[in-house]
């Protein structure tokens, strides 16, 4: 297994983490299956992800200059590579920005998903790519053999094909692409620690903007959106599941004999204290996820316009500490709502949303 990236690409200005879309608790459940068709891909994926995570902690070179090689920061500069079912990155270059459609659907979907993410950040928030300065967007498809995950490794998006049974091609859901690339935005801005509540906020921000990217691409208002993450990802082997996560109703995305039960809480009353998954970053993210859903739904209209703007203001405003807790983030959203919109519906709705999920705005 070759875990070395191309020498031409180095780490971003911050210390990136290895962020995957499939939570470890799902893969661990699958790894315990008696069926080799289920446990073998899960065990390989878990082993791979552990080694990658270790490598990201150990290695970080000089930062690549934000936006290098970008000819026009107002337009995406996308390059797609094919790993050809190996685990060497970046793989063989198969598609550039100026190329026409490929005969490979995964290449086309990756290209489109990178573009949808770029467009939302540019058109809604004036942000030029992931770093704000036109960073080229690279992605690798067909990674590994039945690799059941997709990840942002600090430099690029990487997509597995899934096993075709429980998980389909990871380029299918645009919100998954947006989720992973938003880890890059967080990396270049607040750089939230990937641990405990700060890590759950990191995951939640990726879910929030991943959902907004899908809503923007589909032209949906808050009441039209499904608020699901990864709704197109689950394969025919999942009997009782609609997605990986639900922002509208955390804890209800799946309840399946194979995948297990969705463990996400919707409120602080059910907050999960655990040592697993970096302190439950993929689990407790359900709480700020639900707060955003409640906030955006209360406001109505296009969620990326007012609710998303406030979340973006906090993420990029320079006041969010790397080890922030839910209360810290919530207070900043209240302040951002008042600063941008005054003492109107936005301030009332965001305060109400945090109270509904049990995050104490008066805590110190």
Walk me through what this model shows.
- The protein folds into two domains: 1-188, Elastase, domain 1 (Roll); 198-356, Neutral Protease Domain 2 (Neutral Protease, domain 2, Orthogonal Bundle).
- It is built from ten helices and ten strands.
- It is an alpha+beta fold and 364 residues long.
- The chain has helices at residues 24-31, 36-58, 105-125, 174-188, 196-218, 277-280, 286-299, 307-316, 326-341, 345-356; strands at residues 19-20, 78-82, 92-95, 137-143, 150-152, 157-160, 228-229, 245-246, 255-256, 260-261.
- Residues 1-13 and 56-70 have low confidence and may be disordered.
- α3 (105-125) crosses α4 (174-188), α8 crosses α9 and α9 (326-341) runs antiparallel to α10 (345-356).
- It is globular and about 55 Å long.
List the helices and strands and how they pair.
Layout: E1 19-20, H1 24-31, H2 36-58, E2 78-82, E3 92-95, H3 105-125, E4 137-143, E5 150-152, E6 157-160, H4 174-188, H5 196-218, E7 228-229, E8 245-246, E9 255-256, E10 260-261, H6 277-280, H7 286-299, H8 307-316, H9 326-341, H10 345-356
Parallel strand pairs: 2-4, 4-6
Antiparallel strand pairs: 1-5, 2-3, 5-6, 7-8, 9-10
Helix pairs in contact: 1-2, 3-4, 3-5, 4-5, 5-7, 7-10, 8-9, 9-10
